[in-house]
Amino acid sequence: MAVTLKEVAERAGVSRSAVSRTFTDGASVSDGMRRRVEKAARDLGYSPNALASSLTTGRTKLIGLVSNNFHNPIFLEVFDLFTRGLQDRGLRPLLVNLSQETNPENSVRMLRQYSVDGVVVASSTLPPGFSKAFRDAGVPVVNAFGRYAASPDVHVVGIDNVECGRMAARALMQRGYSHVAFLGGPEGATSTQDRLAGFASEMAAHPGVRVTVSFATAYSFDAGRAEMLRLLQDRHAQAYFCGDDVLSIGALSAIQGAGLSVPSDIGIIGLNDMEMARWENINLTTIHQPIREIVQSSIELMVAMLTDPLRYPEARIFPCMVVERGTLPPL
Amino acid sequence: MAVTLKEVAERAGVSRSAVSRTFTDGASVSDGMRRRVEKAARDLGYSPNALASSLTTGRTKLIGLVSNNFHNPIFLEVFDLFTRGLQDRGLRPLLVNLSQETNPENSVRMLRQYSVDGVVVASSTLPPGFSKAFRDAGVPVVNAFGRYAASPDVHVVGIDNVECGRMAARALMQRGYSHVAFLGGPEGATSTQDRLAGFASEMAAHPGVRVTVSFATAYSFDAGRAEMLRLLQDRHAQAYFCGDDVLSIGALSAIQGAGLSVPSDIGIIGLNDMEMARWENINLTTIHQPIREIVQSSIELMVAMLTDPLRYPEARIFPCMVVERGTLPPL
DNA sequence: CGCCCGTTTGCAACCAGTTGCAAAAATCCC
DNA sequence: GGGATTTTTGCAACTGGTTGCAAACGGGCG
User: What is the helix (H) or strand (E) element at residue B271, kind and residue range?
Assistant: First the structure.
């Protein structure tokens, strides 16, 4: 079916090594040889079998792209950036969906069977055990959007969620609120824990301000809406720092549905700055997470590890910033 | 680095074939042999190299998942469903992002180099040449979300966009509008062309009703908003059938921004029924596209083609239906 | 016990490439 | 023109598995 190197060699009347060499750059081939081989290859429609060659070279150029985050729209952008960035460097993303997987073993085995050159774990909610499992299997790993403190022995690229929490608290304090709240994602998610820690630590400097804390069951519209509906039945806070933008939009929907208006009755600040946040009918004040830079940097780190698998692990933390829109009163 | 079959054979004191057979189901191995080999494999932490075996078996279980649609949120769900569905069947998705690619040749060559067993083209906007190119290269192809009329020799799974156009027109006519409009996606997209054709054909039965047609530059929020802003300067229609949900939401934003209200001043009907459409603060009346079923069926078709690559091509068309929400007046 | 038949096992060739080494060819220099 | 040096080429062994074939094995039966 497929044309092989051997057939090209026969047609060009040369040895198999010669053909192999014309398709390996850096190998020594004369101009005449190159021309003859390329002609034969073109005539036959030959293209080398990357997997066969990986057998001897030990490199497949396959990168496992592992995630469990197939519901948050920002991850569509993340996948877009990763696939394009990897492709541009001649690498191929092998996508692994961990949504229903709890045991790292299976994924590790699978990716090893396919001899991936490296693994990018793109998730803010996977337990650190996953990244570690890959590293222990001797596969270069980068944990994009991960938590740096918890896994000091795995490369991490992301943001400082604790600092984001502080930043949100400061943004609310600048508005002079006397009762603010944290509406987190799932209580078990490290990103939620860190954001709360930062939020609380900053609020500790304002003892006169009342602080309420609650959690949504997921980083989703429905969970945000449900939790906000519940909160509205009680005496609610004047402003909320929501776990992420999707959650914020759910909360907004609940608030508007209750006939209250934003930001005059309740203020909201989200986190991520997903594309939708700047849509005019949402217009969410939020903390911008530099996705583009995180992905870019993750890829660079991955590429660096391909040449030096024992590279000393590092954490790359990118600063975030508040994007002022319409869900907090102007300063 | 990695443990090989040979090492397992040596440790178990058996031949390499014996080890290979214990890991190939359907092969003849005695119980005693199986136990010894499995013990040795476990001790060494062996797992077979899928790529090496693909050399002789001719099957990699790699499926190219090709798309250029990394901006429409429904595709995150599409990717979720595809990756899970393929994984469940022991297949591995090799993701290919065609966003910046215009020439099918490159993608075909790349996927052939990786000896994929099949290719799923998931896109409603890629020109049919892409699917054809894969088929011509002898690779089984399924075009999910594709147009069936234009590529009779490639398997297609999707919806009947012409019928959707008619359906939208009927929904508007039921409301008794006297001036309706089609606000399409990019004029070159086959999905837009088909939807317009259906819309126009149904409207032909209502000669007294005025019909306007215009196109947004992309299936995106910004494009929908921009086009609607332009339309609002003129004498606008009473109701619009928008190219898809994202476009609809952009249009909604423009309408609301202009101080008009939906559905009393202007009605909107979208297409796709993405998750966001049912969010209470959007609440978009739209035509539901059965994504789940389309993906499921595409995978089944792909699996069937793996055993019978010459399978006679078929088009699988799934019915859509109007989902009544808040952007058209109740009937 | 010997024969027959069905399983189990190992040998060796093969899949599609790469690569170290040495022979052959081309180039350089005197 | 001849010898030394460099470049190009082919041979053969190797990567990590699979598989057709034949030999070895084991059990049942007369």
Answer: strand B267-272
Helix A74-88, helix A291-307: angle, nearest 10: 40
Cα–Cα distance between A119 and A136 in angstroms, integer? 12
d(CA A23, CA A47): 9
| pLDDT confidence tier of residue B2, bands split at 50, 70 and 90 | confident
Helix (H) or strand (E) holding B259: none
Pairing outcome for strands A286-288 and A267-272 = parallel
3-state secondary structure of B267: strand
Confidence of residue A1 (pLDDT cuts 50, 70, 90): low
For the record, the structure tokens of B183 come out as: 């606000």
B287: buried, middle or exposed (CB in 10 Å: 19+, 13-18, 0-12)? buried
Does the pLDDT value for residue B151 go beyond 70? Answer: no
**If DSSP codes are grouped into helix, strand and coil, which group holds residue B266?**
coil
Is residue B139 a contact partner of residue B147, using CB atoms and an 8 Å limit? no
Residue type, A188: G
Give the A:B interface size as CB pairs under 8 Å.
137
DSSP state of B180: E
Q: What percent of chain B has pLDDT over 70?
A: 99
Q: How far is the CA of A34 from the C1' of D5 (A)?
A: 24
DSSP, collapsed to helix, strand or coil, labels residue B134 as: helix
At residue B190, the 3 state secondary structure works out as: helix
Q: pTM for the complete prediction?
A: 0.93
pLDDT digits (tens, 9 = 90+) for A292-317: 999 999 999 999 999 999 899 999 99
Q: Write out chain A in H/E/C secondary structure.
A: CCCCHHHHHHHHCCCHHHHHHHCCCCCCCCHHHHHHHHHHHHHHCCCCCHHHHHHHHCCCCEEEEEECCCCCCHHHHHHHHHHHHHHHCCCEEEEEECCCCCCHHHHHHHHHHCCCCEEEEECCCCCCHHHHHHHHCCCCEEEECCCCCCCCCCEEEEECHHHHHHHHHHHHHHCCCCEEEEEECCCCCHHHHHHHHHHHHHHCCCCCCEEEEEECCCCCHHHHHHHHHHHHHCCCCCEEEECCHHHHHHHHHHHHHCCCCCCCCCEEEEEECCHHHHCCCCCCCEEECCHHHHHHHHHHHHHHHHHCCCCCCCEEEECCEEECCCCCCCC
Q: How far is CA A133 from CA A93, A137, A172, A191, A303, in A?
A: 19, 6, 40, 20, 20
| Strand C CB-contacts below 7 Å | A 2, 4-6, 16-17, 20-21, 23-24, 46, 48-49, 52-53, 55-57; B 14-18, 21, 28-30, 32-33, 55-56
- Diameter of chain B by CA atoms? 88
Q: What is the dihedral of CA B322, B121, B307, A6, to 10 degrees?
A: 180
Torsions phi, psi for A320 (to 5 deg): -110, 165
Tokens at residue A149, please? 């403190």
Q: Which nucleotide is nearest to A21 (CA to C1')?
A: C18
